[in-house]
Design a protein that fits this description.
single chain, 172 residues, alpha/beta, six-stranded parallel sheet, 6 strands, 18% strand, globular
């Protein structure tokens, strides 16, 4: 099994904080940082966010992912990283499945053919509407007492629930 991980605009979570530590098997992993994918390693945080969503940065990320990844893999994206995976799937990149964690910009995206599951903290003001959640993703999970960056707290209940659901879905 191959797993492609795309981090958020702060290059989070770090490798040791990612879902990989929760998996029983050790898959082959490709880990990508958004600033490298869009060719702007000098950007991070809000500057990277602006570049991705208000300039052509996300288009470049999708282009590079399409050139870099070959064959089916499982995509796991954190925040803007999940949006990148979703857009890459919409542009024809083949994934076995994608999992998007706190990817609030998905609220602007349409359905995709790739099997998908999304996770949001109930306390994240940017999460998509109930209407979007019921009509666009294949599956969604709203986690109580969790904000946008809940996945950075490796031992939180919300992170554990997220990682357990993903591991169960990919049979690891």
């Amino acid at each position: 099994m191959n797993i492609c991980i795309v981090t958020d605009i702060h290059d989070q979570p770090k490798h040791e904080q990612c879902i990989l530590g929760k998996l029983e098997t050790r898959p082959r992993v490709s880990r990508f940082e958004l600033n490298d994918l869009c060719g702007r390693p000098d950007l991070c945080g809000e500057a990277l966010h602006r570049y991705l969503f208000y300039d052509d940065g996300m288009d470049e990320v999708v282009r590079v992912l399409k050139q870099t990844l070959s064959g089916d893999c499982i995509g796991i994206g954190y925040s803007a990283g999940g949006t990148a995976l979703w857009r890459a799937a919409a542009a024809g990149l083949s994934f076995t499945a994608i999992f998007c964690i706190s990817s609030t910009r998905l609220r602007e995206e349409a359905t995709i053919a790739t099997p998908n599951q999304v996770f949001f903290g109930a306390d994240d003001p940017g999460r998509p509407s109930a209407e979007w959640l019921l009509s666009v993703p294949d599956e969604f999970t709203i986690l109580e007492n969790a904000g946008h960056s809940y996945y950075q707290a490796l031992t939180s209940e919300a992170t554990n629930v997220t990682y357990e659901k993903i591991a169960k879905s990919i049979h690891c």
